[in-house]
């Protein structure tokens, strides 16, 4: 989706994010709303599918393992679906559901396993699922690198994470990794 409908979805997403307090939550580089918008802008610059761009704009809506403040409860998924569409909402839910401590170490293996922290179980992702997860993850972390005051150890951990995401989004991971390594 591009054109007028994409713009409408962005406006609907922003209205929902503002109504749910994203502009009031501190986040590296200002507030959560600005971080979400910048993440979406990175994805658009990478020419990611529109559903992934919209998901990037709302990726923390249900909270994450690294940023637990949720703008929406899990029983409010329909609210987000109506703003950004079913496919984008599913990407947001997947991103928010990631049990990072369980999932991230498996990314460097021949058989990565996505652990859903909401369900407490490993769930299967197809190639598109892994790619959208990787793209949103890369854009999220790259925005934090650009706008956060990160210690060298944190930058090293992010660089390692980007290397692990390369099989799912090679060009974007290489570009993001190059930027981290130049810091």
In total, the number of strands is 4
Mass-distribution shape: globular
- Provide mean pLDDT, rounded: 95
H-E string: HEEHHHHHEEHHH
- Please tally the helical runs, counting DSSP H or I stretches of 4 or more residues: 9
Description:
The model has no long low-confidence stretch (mean pLDDT about 95). The chain is about 60% helix and about 5% strand. The longest helix has 21 residues, at about 125-145. It has one domain: Hypothetical protein af1432. It has about 180 residues and is mainly α. The strands form 2 sheets. A two-stranded antiparallel sheet has the order 1-2. The chain is globular.
Short description:
With 183 residues, the protein is mostly helical.
What is the strand and helix layout of this fold?
Layout: H1 4-19, E1 26-27, E2 30-31, H2 32-45, H3 50-57, H4 77-84, H5 86-97, H6 100-103, E3 114-116, E4 121-123, H7 127-147, H8 152-165, H9 170-181
Antiparallel strand pairs: 1-2, 3-4
Name the features.
Hypothetical protein af1432; two-stranded antiparallel sheet; 60% helix; mainly alpha; globular; 9 helices; 183 residues
